[in-house]
Specification:
CATH topology of the largest domain: TIM Barrel
Largest sheet: 8 strands, antiparallel
Structural class: alpha/beta
Mean pLDDT: 92
Strand order of the largest sheet: 1-2-3-4-5-10-15-14
Number of helices: 10
CATH class of the largest domain: Alpha Beta
Number of domains: 2
Number of strands: 24
Strand content: 25-35%
Radius of gyration: 24 Å
Low-confidence stretches: none
Distance between the termini: 33 Å
């Protein structure tokens, strides 16, 4: 799915070797320490870590192989309790392990991380070329010990009986350079005017070929009753982003906007939110399929997915399956694991993020530095989706100052229209002031787009 697959499985007496698009996992059946060698294939070809779970794997067998997963199993003999083990290696280079008894999982490696975070038994270690992450599932925080030196590292996690843990070797798929230059995203938000005019759409098509329509295109709790929104309190009470079923505020206007955008060469994706919708899991996936089909959309824009790793994984895979090659653009696609979100350093999940064409991060971040830009916003050699900066609420001079760094990190900037920071959302407290939006748009036109075009020429060798 989405350019990722299980490519080859080799099963022998002493080892099982599983190759996916982005990784190779070699399971040693002959030794008694339960050793699994984790190798990276994209970004760099190298061993990123060795995992030991300190138990015999001598009776592991391959039970199922298809493009999406390799299932490996070890049953419990009548004479020995708690030897059962389930291993699933997915096409996105994520490995899931579930054991019948407690497991001590020890990862060792020599990768020297430029970005490394350990939070509640979860960790992610990244350098310029890729990396590895571990994610124990469940609510209990496992005991964790770690050692880092200048040359190598070791992290041990103590897992309860039948506590699943995930290992991610990344990137899981190649970076799409052509798409990163070709696709330019325009965001539109307005409470008063959720549906832009044909003239506005034609104007914006000079600067982007994907139009994001935000939440106010949908009916909420107040607008379903015909009430007009009067400001911040009403807008939050209306809660159009939490709907179980997404219903247009004005169906004819929505159809007009989609048609006008298509005529101007733009694809249209509407706001939806897996994290806030009252539809859950399969219900939400069915709603995505309905919205795209019924309203002629070219994909969807998500405002969050789930705070639960396993749920977020299932939703992202399920949505990607129903969308096929249509657009999936996600604001904060995987759970933020850690307490340091505002500082920009936390554990996230490349094996979830990779199902998005584009990701969006950096809203309300206090510590916006190179490490955050390169290893959290940019997904290059991490998930290899295309990372955009959520820069609408940063001062224009700040945005101007990061253009070169954004391109150096292989990230991108969206073009914001509507009234994001003008005060329209708080219009009962102050009148709209469009000067900030206009200044941001001028920076995009005068500085960012010309430099992005120059970067594309260099990539093409022109």
């Amino acid at each position: 799915m989405f350019g990722m697959r299980v490519e080859k499985v080799e099963e022998g007496r002493d080892e099982i070797r599983v190759s996916t698009t982005g990784a190779i996992y070699t399971i040693n059946k002959a030794g008694g320490e339960g050793e699994i060698v984790c190798e990276q294939r994209i970004g760099a070809e190298r061993e990123v870590a060795t995992l030991r779970i300190y138990r015999s794997l001598d009776s592991l067998t391959v039970e199922e192989v298809n493009d999406e997963v390799c299932v490996i199993h070890q049953s419990t003999p009548p004479t020995e309790c708690w030897r059962g083990l389930r291993i699933r290696i997915h096409s996105d280079s994520m490995m899931s392990i579930l054991g019948d008894r407690p497991i001590k999982a020890t990862f060792r490696g020599s990768l020297v991380p430029e970005y490394g975070v350990v939070e509640r038994g979860n960790f992610i270690l990244i350098d310029e070329f890729g990396g590895i992450g571990c994610y124990p599932l469940g609510w209990e925080t496992p005991k964790t010990s770690l050692r880092f030196s200048g040359k190598d590292w070791q992290i041990s996690v103590l897992l309860e009986r039948r506590q699943r843990f995930l290992t991610s070797v990344f990137p899981p798929r190649p970076f799409e350079w052509e798409k990163s230059f070709r696709d330019r995203i325009v965001h539109h938000f307005s409470v008063d005017k959720p549906y832009p005019t044909d003239e506005e759409i034609r104007d914006w098509s000079q600067y982007g070929n994907i139009l994001v329509l935000h939440a106010t295109i949908w009916k909420g709790k107040y607008t379903r009753m015909g009430k007009r929104l009067k400001g911040t309190v009403d807008t939050y009470a209306d809660a159009c982003w939490t709907s179980y079923r997404y219903t247009p505020l004005d169906l004819e206007e929505l159809r007009r906007v989609v048609e006008a955008a298509h005529d101007a060469g733009m694809r249209v994706i509407p706001y939806m939110s897996a994290s806030m919708s009252l539809a859950e899991d399969e219900e939400f996936i069915r709603e995505v399929s309905r919205v795209v089909r019924e309203y002629g959309m070219d994909g969807v824009y998500f405002d969050g997915v789930s705070d639960d790793v396993w749920q977020a994984y299932r939703i992202m895979r399920g949505v990607r399956e129903v969308l096929g090659d249509k657009i999936l653009y996600v604001h904060v696609p995987s759970p933020i694991i850690g307490e340091s979100y505002a500082d920009g350093y936390y554990v996230y999940c490349p094996f979830i993020d990779t199902y998005a064409d584009y990701t969006l991060r950096a809203e309300h971040i206090k510590n916006f530095d190179w490490r955050y830009l390169r290893y959290t916003i940019s997904t290059y050699n991490i998930s290899n989706s295309i990372g955009f900066v959520c820069n609408y609420n940063y001062p224009p001079e700040f945005v101007s100052g990061i253009v070169d760094q954004v391109l150096k990190a292989n990230a991108r900037l969206p073009y914001w229209t509507g009234r994001w920071v003008s005060g329209e959302f708080l219009r009962e407290e102050r009148p709209p002031d469009l000067r900030i939006e206009e200044e941001l748009q001028e920076i995009m036109r005068r500085e960012y787009f010309p430099k992005l075009s120059e970067a594309e020429k260099r990539w093409r060798g022109e």
